[in-house]
Amino acid sequence: MDKPSPDRWLAVWEAGARRHPLDRALLLFALASPDTPVAELADAPLGERNAALMALRSACFGGRLSGWCGCPACGERMSVALTSGDLPPPPAADGPVVVDGHGFARPTSRHLAMLAGIDDPDAAADALLAACALHPAALPDDRTALRRAVAVALDEADPWADLSLDLVCPACGDQQATALDIAALLWEELDAYAGRLLDDVHQLAWAYGWTEAEILALGEARRAAYLARTSGGRRVVQ
Ligand SMILES: [Zn+2]
Q: Phi, psi (5° rounding) for residue 106?
């Protein structure tokens, strides 16, 4: 995968700064899949989106993931570190799954957007089941058991759609499956990266009078070399 240029990263960061997390994930997906129309990306299975975001992240920020999360049982802060090799292989196919004779498409970003206004978790799960069903009119009235079975089947068919980690708390021994939201994680990293880029632009523009486009077009090594020369606060352009 080709690394996006600094100005492409900044454009995505600016476009998504005030948007819903789902929109941010789609902006990142578009950055990772520049040859696919955005309208098609909204209908791509979430596992495909997450695998593309992980590939983008590995190419640009490295394959090692690390962070912290709180133990839900005792509150202990646990460090989490893994590499992309610890994650399951991306799914080979994206066809529907069949449960009890009913076919279900894999959930997409468009499906999740449809659920954004539904507060009740059961109602949201029912709406998702109906939206993914190839023949919703054929679904039974009581869908509780079917919902559970479909969730298991979808997870087996495409574990990347809803990545989770089994974590054991070192303080209390509690074991929990913790969701790994690769889109949110990548957005946090982009936010930090954009902040560093803007600092660099500010410092070099102040010192040399160059434009943002000129500074972002510099290679990383050359930008760092010029930054080192401005570290004394010396202004070259008067
Ligand atoms: Zn604990």
A: -80, 140
Residues 152 and 101 in one domain: yes
- Classified as helix, coil or strand, 140 is coil
Which range marks the domain in which residue 114 is found? 97-157
127 lies in a domain?
A: yes
Task: Tell me how far the alpha carbon of residue 177 lies from the centroid of ligand 1, in angstroms.
Answer: 13
Our CA angle for 167, 173, 177, nearest 5°, is 25
- CB atoms within 5 A of ion ligand 1 belong to 71, 73-74, 76, 169, 171-172, 174
> What residue type is 134 in one-letter code?
L
Distance 66 CA to ligand 1 centre (A): 19
In a domain, 126, yes or no: yes
Q: What does pTM read for this prediction?
A: 0.86
pLDDT digit string (tens) for 165-221?
888 888 898 888 878 889 998 999 999 999 999 999 999 999 999 999 999 999 999
Is there a domain that residue 222 lies in?
yes
Question: Where does a domain end: 105, 133, 157?
Answer: 157
Residue 147 lies in a domain: yes
Tokens of 68: 């912290």
Q: Total domain count for the chain?
A: 2
Residues 231, 136: Cα–Cα separation, whole Å? 64
Q: How far is the CA of 70 from the centre of ligand 1 (A)?
A: 8
